[in-house]
Amino acid sequence: MFVNFIKKLGQSLIATVSIMAVVFLLMAFGVVPFEKDMVIAFLIGGAMLAFGQALFLVGIDLSILEVGRRAGTRLMRMKKIWLILIFGLVFGFVTTIAEPDAQVLVAQITSFNSFLSTWLILSLFGIGAGLFVSFALFRVLKKVPLKYCLLVLYAIIFILAIFAPNEYLGLSFDAGSVATGTITAPFLLSLVIGICSVRSGATKDDNFGAVAIVSAGPIIAVLILGLITGPMTGSSLETETATTFLSVLIENIKDVSIALSPLLVIFILLQIFILKLPLRQAIRALIGFIISYIGLICFLTSVFYGFSPMGTFVGENLAGLGTWLILLLGAVLGFLIVFTEPSILVLAGEVEDVTSSLLKKWVIYLALGIGIAISVTIGLVHVVYNVNLWYIILPVMAVAILLSFVIPPIFTGIAFDSGGIASGTMTVAFILPICTGLSGIINEGNIITEAFGLAGIVASVPILTIEILGLIYMVLDKKNRRQHDKRNSNNDSK
């Protein structure tokens, strides 16, 4: 375990230091002024981020991933579909309402629509996610091709988007992104892999796609909410943010406790009624939960104490740069951010394991890094030039759906899962503040149309980069097959 921690800590340090180096270069060249207190907070945040991410990844290896796979295996062997679907509904609901990112987004929504309660919106997110977790598991059990599911779901989304108030388009895709966050995504991935490991006729293609389907649930739920409530009328965010290290730490201890408690309860119930692990293995999983708990507290505290304020500060000082320099900076930060998102690292590891190293982790990192770099650049174009989200998200998703009918099925699942995971905590808490900080200077902060939708953009473009990777793989595979057949033909002729 210690060796694994040191390995992951080294990886986390490289990614964190790279992002911090970009910020310090901006300070060195006078683009961003040097403020001692903010720099100290940024340095403390950087150290805690690397340490927390490494701890979290080690912890989920011992707990969430292992329990998820075993739960999927045991539930499948019980041959009770209704039990699996009920489990999916409950799991999706409780984990979604507990997601820290979801709670941040809901706080923003209620600042615009104060007559909507926090728990009403969280429950709406949870119901949408829960229903679609059940649907995702049903798809796996009944062997329904993912591409047809996505075609129907996004057809529904596009139709709803036409009639819903415009600001709800961005908000809905943001909701889909945050619902499959740091807590939900790793367990869901491992649960499906566990089910597929014992389902007769299961292929590697079936292991992925669940996160993508679950992301659609909150999108549909929010668009329906928009149809019911009508346009938002607010003009500024009123959410309170903690300013001291202690206040941020206490807030994140509370949030993480709320976030992980449902999973701990689920584990205990699974252990009593289904898993029945030997005492040693159960203790090992419990230790993993504790390590994940500590790691996630460190990670979130670093992000919201050191990185989020710095993101806003950087964004407010970028207005003096030329547009192309702003876009270039966004692309660089977007590329680097992929290596700091815990859920992305988990996904890449699962992809490598399931494909028996056919798809290496570094290939997934590279494809997603390029995708997020392009996403952030497009997000900045959206902010600088006030481009309507209709002309960004919907065309991208339409192309993604069409490509799903061309590429190998496994790449469709990986691509759409990547989209659901790409817009994680670091994106929400560091990249988005840069965009909103810049918007506040350039456009005097038209928050309703600009604050919402940026996470949705970041979640959409990486789908295309993974699908393009699938196209490249398909072409190379056909070429290799032709060469193999040609060699066999030559050998036979001899």
Protein described:
By secondary structure, the chain is an all-alpha fold. The protein has one domain (2-493). Helices cover 81% and strands 0% of the residues. It is built from 20 helices and no strands. The protein has helices at residues 2-28, 36-62, 64-77, 81-98, 100-112, 118-142, 146-163, 167-179, 184-198, 210-229, 245-275, 279-316, 323-337, 342-354, 361-385, 393-403, 409-422, 425-442, 447-450, 454-493. Helix 6 (118-142) runs parallel beside helix 9 (184-198), helix 13 runs antiparallel to helix 15 (361-385) and helix 14 (342-354) packs antiparallel against helix 15. It starts with a helix and ends with a helix. The model is unreliable at 235-242 (pLDDT under 50).
Biggest β-sheet, characterized?
none
Radius of gyration, taken over Cα atoms and rounded to an integer in Å = 22 Å
* Low-confidence sequence ranges: 235-242
Amino- and carboxy-terminal Cα gap = 55 Å
Q: Treating each run of at least 4 consecutive H or I residues as one helix, how many helices?
A: 20
Instruction: Tell me the number of strands.
Output: 0
**Beta-strand percent range:** under 5%
The structure class reads: mainly alpha
- The residue-averaged pLDDT reads 85
H-E string: HHHHHHHHHHHHHHHHHHHH
Number of domains: 1
